[in-house]
Specification:
Layout lengths: L10 E8 L2 E8 L4 E6 L17 E6 L5 E2 L10 H14 L5 E6 L2 H11 L4 E7 L7 H14 L2 H11 L4 H5 L4 H8 L1 H4 L18 H14 L13 E6 L21 E6 L6 H4 L1 H14 L4
Parallel strand pairs: 3-4, 3-6, 6-7, 7-8, 8-9
Antiparallel strand pairs: 1-2, 2-4, 2-5
Helix pairs in contact: 1-2
Length: 294
């Protein structure tokens, strides 16, 4: 795995105002610009120092991780608004054409951003993303967990979920973080791995996650608009990822992509860029060099 903690290289940090929100960003590395959607605190910890030698990684908050001034409503977390924020950041930073990277649910953001703003995107990388969070794909995830997981992994999950709920009761606004940490046995190849240091000091707006993960990604039609997307797409999945629908559930969608590359990482769970960083870096950079938009 990659090392924990902040990066050691130089970075440029700042914020960009969008409505009531201050979208944080961190620019790290040299090379073609790659926007990494999500938390500008969490995600720099999951990508290797080595990758920063080949790409200019632009880590950007979306509204689920950004601090806000004043009252906000559910309308402030509308999916189209979140996607427009990505474009606002790209324009503000003068990035020109970009690679867009999204991990987990942020993979939907990366793909949908590319559909709407394809003229500004050279490549899309979706990491550990299932076709949706809808009932059919949730059932496939549960079946995969029930039928393919060793007793030791299941026991670890039961032990983690049985821990006293004091942390959630003390900070209900951070229950998304508590969920991610406690679901470690479903998230990591090493099912004893403690991910809590990765989440240190990460700000979370729970209404955004309730709306996006609970509604938008539940109902999303991943195939809509793919026929018009001429941008190469990489789908990077972990063999031991039990948080999202398994690899085979992508089969009905594959022919809808004009240019799709699928890579399954054998010793990874939900975060292959961290768990198998050297292999992930090599595969990503090779794909970037070989694939060009039509």
């Amino acid at each position: 795995m990659s090392a924990f903690g902040h990066t050691t290289g130089a970075s440029t940090r700042g914020t960009i105002r969008s409505g009531a929100f201050e979208l944080g960003y961190s620019i790290e590395g040299e090379g073609p610009p790659a926007i990494v959607i999500g938390s500008a605190v969490y995600y720099p910890r999951t990508f290797s120092e080595r990758l920063r030698q080949s790409l200019k990684l632009v880590f950007v908050d979306h509204r689920g991780f950004a601090r806000a001034s004043g009252d906000v409503s559910a309308a402030d977390f509308a999916f189209d608004t979140v996607l427009a924020d990505i474009e606002r950041v790209r324009e503000h930073l003068g990035l020109g054409e970009v690679i867009v990277i999204g991990h987990s649910g942020h993979g939907y953001m990366a793909l949908e951003y590319a559909k709407r703003y394809s003229r500004n995107v050279s490549h899309v990388a979706m990491i550990a993303t299932g076709p949706s969070h809808g009932a059919v794909h949730v059932q496939a995830t549960e079946r995969y967990w029930d039928e393919s997981v060793c007793p030791e992994r299941k026991a670890q999950l039961a032990a983690d979920l049985a821990k006293p709920p004091a942390e959630i009761e003390a900070a209900p606004d951070r229950r998304f973080v508590a969920y991610c940490v406690r679901m470690g046995a479903r998230s990591w190849y090493d099912y004893t791995f403690d991910a809590s240091p990765l989440w240190r000091d990460v700000h979370v707006n729970m209404p955004a996650f309730d709306h996006l993960w609970g509604e938008v990604f539940r109902d999303i039609d991943i195939g809509h608009g793919l026929d018009a997307l001429d941008v190469p797409v990489l789908l990077a999945l972990g063999r031991y990822d039990y948080l999202v629908a398994p690899y085979a559930t992508w089969e009905p969608y594959r022919e809808s992509f004009r240019d799709l590359t699928v890579r399954v990482f054998e010793r990874s769970g939900h975060t292959p860029q961290f768990e198998e960083s050297a292999l992930f870096d090599a595969e990503l950079l090779r794909w970037l060099s070989e694939r060009r938009r039509a």
